[in-house]
Specification:
5 helices; ITP diphosphatase activity; dITP diphosphatase activity; metal-binding
Length: 200
């Protein structure tokens, strides 16, 4: 079965492919489509944005589509950047500028108040109109300077306290064991297997 992950982000595609490597499910992305345009994500929640992207992808391709919307919620910033995580520092999207802005806003925040979480909502949309939602979250805190070279986005600043390492210091396997997106992807696998049985 072929499915489309509605993203241009190869990091997300690698994560999903790694998780479903044994399921005989081929994952393609928006990068595999000609003249792919990004859909405007104007939802107010991660789930709304994921649904917008999944519906657009299934309509365009006729394939079962997955789309996630993930973001960072920082308690000291009242949940920001939230759904604006990717464009926190404005257009165009830029991880380095987003991280710089986050560090500036948290400059005077003490260590015990730098708590944060990554959240992910994943929507699976089938050509027959069925939709499914899975979610994941991982708790942590924001460091004062980046650590690690793997991962992307805010990963170098996000410390997982029980591991003593940032998400950017974890191997792909370690990250897939705990990340918010991996949690949502893992919950999606039984749904995909059921859909595969229905749409061989």
């Amino acid at each position: 079965m072929k499915i489309i992950l509605a993203t241009q982000n190869e990091g997300k595609v690698r994560e999903l492919r790694d998780l479903i490597a044994d399921e005989e499910i081929e994952v393609v992305s928006l990068r595999d489509l000609p003249e792919s345009e990004e859909v405007e994500e104007n939802g107010e929640t991660f789930a709304e944005n994921a649904a917008i992207k999944a519906r657009a992808a299934v309509q365009r391709t006729g394939l079962i589509a997955l789309a996630d919307d993930s973001g960072l919620e920082v308690d000291a910033l009242k949940g920001a950047p939230g759904v604006f995580s990717a464009r926190f520092a404005g257009e165009p999207k830029d991880d380095e500028r987003n991280n710089e802005k986050l560090l500036e806003l948290l400059e005077t925040i003490p260590e015990d108040k730098r708590t944060a979480r990554f959240r992910c909502a994943l929507v699976i949309a089938a050509p027959n109109g069925e939709e499914y939602l899975t979610e994941g979250r991982v708790e942590g805190k924001i460091l004062r300077q980046p650590r690690g070279t793997d991962g992307f986005g805010y990963d170098p600043l996000f410390l997982v306290p029980e591991l003593g390492r940032t998400l950017a210091e974890l191997t792909l396997t370690e990250k897939n064991n705990l990340s918010h997106r991996a949690q949502a992807f893992r919950k999606a696998i039984p749904i995909l297997k059921d859909l595969k049985a229905e749409h061989p």
